[in-house]
Amino acid sequence: MERKQLGMNDILPPELIHGILLRVPAEDLFRLRFVSKLWHSFISDPDFAESHYNLYSAASSGSVLVKDHTNACCVSLDTLFDVTAAAPPTFKVVSLPSKKTPCSLFRLLGSCRGFLLLEEKPANFLVIWNPLTGSSKTISYSHIASEIQPDDAFRYGFGFDASRDDYLIVLSWLDNYNQHRLVCFSLRTNSWINLDAALPKSISRRKQQLSGWFLHGAIHWLCYSSKDCIDDGILIFDLKERSFSKISMPQQLVGDYPIYLTILRGCLALYSYDIDNHKTEIWVMKEYKVPSSWILMYEIPYGNNLPLCMSNGNDIIALNFIPRYCKIRFAKYNVSGKLLNYSPLPLSEYYNFHRSFSVYTESLFPFPCDIKDRDKKKKTGQECFEQHDDVAKD
Predict the structure, then answer these.
(1) Which residues contact 349 (CB under 8 A, 6 or more apart)?
(2) What is the mean pLDDT of residues 331-343?
(3) CB count in 10 Å sphere of residue 143
(4) Global confidence as pTM
(5) How far apart are CA 262 and CA 317, in angstroms?
(6) Neighbour count for residue 344 (Cβ, 10 Å)
(7) HEC letters along 214-225
(8) Measured in Å, how far apart are the chain's first and last C-alpha atoms?
(9) Which of 282, 341, 292, 332 is nearest to 312 (CA)?
(10) Residues 17-35: what's their mean pLDDT?
(11) What is the DSSP string of 284-323?
(12) Euclidean distance between CA atoms 306 and 281, whole angstroms
């Protein structure tokens, strides 16, 4: 009778409970953090959050978020092709971080360690948002937007500087005097910082805004050398060194257009749609910053495909869309480009927004603007998750 009245914390040693919780999905952990003081201390610990994120990101477990300017929903990639599941995969609706009426229009710009970077229009705000916890921070960049001409290239980047334990938003553009400008917003200091870093070569103006990819402590963009042609490289901004560098792309892709940059299982990847042959080619850089390691990894002959991630094997999960039939769906292909199966999840209503998908790994990291408070709370393990709607001053 006495044993029946004991709880898990009384029966299992703390280190075993810690190990079990590490293997619980972040969404469930967020709900379980108030089960007991012991569980709360584990789940709220920044070191636990780091270990949990590394475990799940290494396993390629993640979610994909779909946005149509005002609404958002997400689905776990683990459930997309689970034929043994009792129910088909479904989207979970999540509330975008806006309290304005009428609603603002949002655009996805990037992701980093479970946080998403959004652009909020028409107010010229950037928003850092954790879809799992609902935490968000709104940052004004209206003082920068006033300097940018409509036909200028305006590059965004969002990443984590481990050397300073700081999240940074990076903006790069040409000002009214045709001079390159570079600034970053530090979540640790809650301020904009002017940076002086020379570009490897001049970058011409573009009408579109370009979003960077975060990998290995740096932001990565494709280099455009003219209006209709992509240059032969990828522009890199190192967040620790605060400097630019450049690596070349496969010679087979030089001059092709359009080409898109993405990340597949921790590697830089380029993909393009061959209209003449009706196939999608995906090149992967197997060794970071080693141009000779580029390989043509996939040739998918099934319409236009947007690669999202690689499964635990070498299979690739992609968004397949056919403009002629206005059809869009999740699909899985093997390394030979053979179609394995389609996900039963319906996507017809999201067809016009297929470029607004973002893959990310859910995380329990403390919200970036709480970094200073976190350092104080870490000693007691009593950190809490709060809703933020601070607006950084110009």
Answers:
(1) none
(2) 89
(3) 12
(4) 0.84
(5) 13
(6) 14
(7) EECCEEEEEEEC
(8) 64
(9) 332
(10) 87
(11) EESSTT-GGGEEEEEEE-SSEEEEEEE-SSS-EEEEEEEG
(12) 10
